[in-house]
Amino acid sequence: MATAGTGNSGSDDGRVTGQQWRWTVLAAMASYIDAGSIVAIAAGLALWQEYLGMSSVTIGLLAAFGPNAVGAAMGAVIGGRLGDLLGRKRIYQYDLLLYAFGTLWMVFAFNTPMLFIGTFLVGVAVGADVPTSLALVGEFAPSRARSKLLGFTQVFWSLGPIITLLIALVLAPYGLLGIRIVFAHLFVVAIVTWALRRGMVESAVWTAASRAGDTESTPDSDEQASEPRDPLAGRNLRNLFTGYTLRAIVFTAVVYTFWNLAAGTYGFFLPYFLSTMGLESQAADVALQSLWFFTTLVFVVLIFMPLGDGRYRRLIFGAGAVCQIVAFLLLVFFPLDGPAGFNVLAAVANIILFGIGAALAGEPHYKVWSQELFPTMLRTTAQGLTFAVARTCLGIWSFFVPVIAEAGFEVVALILVIFLSISGIVGLLFMPNTAGKSLEEIEAERTDGRARIPEAAS
User: Fold this and answer.
1) pLDDT-derived band at 113, boundaries 50, 70, 90
2) How far apart are CA 338 and CA 310, in angstroms?
3) Hey, which end of the chain has fewer CB within 10 Å, N or C?
4) Are the beta carbons of 28 and 162 closer than 8 angstroms?
């Protein structure tokens, strides 16, 4: 039926239609507003603190309740579960209205409660949108172009901060008004995306699985009643915490959480790190932060998108993991507060290497694995759960970063090396052999016991 036609993941020629690219762009806007919101809030913290007279504790709570932590975690759990129960379309379409409503609170905030309400609503909306939008992309993508299309969402994860940072830089002379305009731009993006998404249809993969699950759970004939019931197609949460699916949750949660601890720390505290080198001008700050996101964008397009669905997936992930670890080892041996010249070179090398690593390991693979490893009727529930775990852990960890940094940033860098090593080692050892396979083929392997993920791969 046309009302349920977002393509078929079974295509194996890797060709992507114009409609699939268009739908991917609309789904990828979740990554744009997610990363853009985090950067916008960080850019405005000092101005809001001065305007509203907020204490450091209040600033910390504001950061914890927003799209970088608890708010997004709550939205991911709720939106992810509803995405499996009600369908992808209902959630990814209407959560943008909640996001737009939240940004209006940020635009017009004249007291602390308004700021908290807006930040929390933005976080919840972002959290709900990410798992359902990514599931939609994974379910209509050709089997040999899944990494290509999901990698394209990572391009928007880079564009969101770059554009937001540039707007903030241009509007810096206007102070707090400039930050209000930055959030007004996010409001416009959300409304336009919502209007365009209204033309999208429900995932054919989810629709078929939903109908199969309904038929199996409420048979209306003797023939249907005699058919074997596939437990992986059911909505029951018991299937989420048993056997293969539980192991897949632990695998993706560990890889993404430890990567996100490093990336989230980097994204939120990078201006502070740069200030220790004396680079306190906003132009230099924006240039170096944009360098990170631009590097990620370039390597996603040149390497991850064209090669991520083939036999080089493990090599790509391994190279990315090594780049990220080396990036922070540089700051262990060449601290930012060290001799002038060496610290600047170390900082630039760190930004470029981490940008490359972020394109090849961590979140891009997490997005792909989250579509491949979970059964259709639990896909957004599972991804919402792992996304929530990662954002909650980041929120808790962020409270300790400034205190640890007082002992020297090399201590923070060493801890981030440990985080990234855990993520990289687990990803390499337990990487699933799913590249280039259709979602139906992967699910069939789960059902008949041929799937080995996440047991150590050979």
Assistant:
1) very high
2) 43
3) C
4) no
CA-angle at 285, arms to 48 and 297, nearest 5°: 110
Q: Is the dihedral of CA 181, 183, 185, 191 positive or negative?
A: negative
Three-class secondary structure of residue 6 per DSSP? coil
Angle between helices 18-52 and 176-197 (to 10 degrees): 150
Give helix 409-429 / helix 313-333 axis angle, nearest 10°.
160
Contact 142, 12 (CB under 8 A): yes
Q: What percent of the chain has pLDDT over 90?
A: 47
Distance, in Å, from the CA atom of 279 to the CA atom of 296, rounded to the nearest integer, reads 22
Report the amino acid identity of residue 120: F
Query: Is the Cβ–Cβ distance between 249 and 382 less than 8 Å?
Result: yes
Q: How far is CA 312 from the centre of its chain?
A: 23
Q: Among 278, 303, 310, which Cα is nearest to 434's?
A: 310
Rounded Cα distance between 58 and 75, Å, is 22
Distance CA 269, CA 402 (A): 9
Length of the chain: 458
174 CB-contact burial (10 Å; exposed 0-12 / middle 13-18 / buried 19+): exposed
Highest mean pLDDT pick, 236-240, 284-288, 362-366, 406-410: 362-366
Instruction: Specify burial of residue 23 (Cβ count, 10 A radius: 0-12, 13-18, 19+).
Output: buried
Average pLDDT over residues 28-53: 87
**Residue 10: count of CB within 10 angstroms of its CB:** 13
Whether the predicted pLDDT of 1 surpasses 50? no
In CATH, which superfamily holds the domain spanning 10-203+235-448? MFS general substrate transporter like domains (1.20.1250.20)
Task: Catalogue the long-range contacts made by 208-215 (C-beta closer than 8 Å, 24 or more residues apart).
Answer: 208/4, 209/233, 209/375, 209/376, 209/377, 210/87, 210/377, 213/377
**77 Cβ partners below 8 Å, 6+ apart?**
127, 384, 385, 388
Structure tokens at 152: 């394209």
pTM: 0.86
C-alpha torsion 241→376→383→246, nearest 10: 20
